[in-house]
Design brief:
The protein has five helices and no strands. The protein is extended and about 70 Å long. InterPro entries: DUF3017.
């Protein structure tokens, strides 16, 4: 086994790297000190052909971000409940797009399952909390009144 430098897998100075199939064998099972590449998440390819302009290639992400931005604008214009429902629905739409489309561009951050779970749970929580917000909640969950009664009041 040749002497190794500080970076695992690199031969010491003066030693030749093997060529061909022997080059693919790692000398050490340790991870390299410097990461040279990262894997794209599953489905992280372009959502449109490479010849299309950048916004068209990233339309799923832009659709979700546009919905969230519009929801924030509506909240700023003093319609709290409608704006936050739109934000939650945008995240739920992101979960659906991640499930339905094979390639979603930069909307893919992690694995498909993790993205769908994250977008879906956050979207559902935002929608549910905005529908339960005071004053005059649109949705009332009775057991939550009992929980709040024993913990806060």
């Amino acid at each position: 086994m040749p002497a190794m430098t500080a970076e695992a897998g690199e031969p010491a100075a003066g030693k030749q790297r093997p060529s061909g199939p022997a080059r693919l064998v790692r000398a050490s099972r340790r991870f390299p000190l410097i990461t040279r590449d990262t894997a794209r998440p599953e489905g992280g390819g372009r959502a449109a052909p490479g010849a299309a302009p950048a916004p068209a290639r990233q339309w799923p992400l832009l659709a979700v971000m546009g919905g969230v931005g519009l929801g924030l604008l509506i909240v700023a214009l003093d319609a709290f409940r409608a704006g936050t429902v739109l934000i939650g629905l945008s995240l739920l739409a992101g979960a659906f797009l991640r499930w339905a489309l094979p390639e979603v561009g930069m909307l893919a951050v992690r694995s498909r399952f993790t993205d769908m779970l994250t977008y879906g749970l956050l979207g559902a929580a935002i929608v549910l909390l905005s529908l339960m917000a005071q004053p005059d909640p649109w949705v009332s969950i009775p057991f939550l009144d009992d929980v709040v009664h024993f913990t806060v009041r």
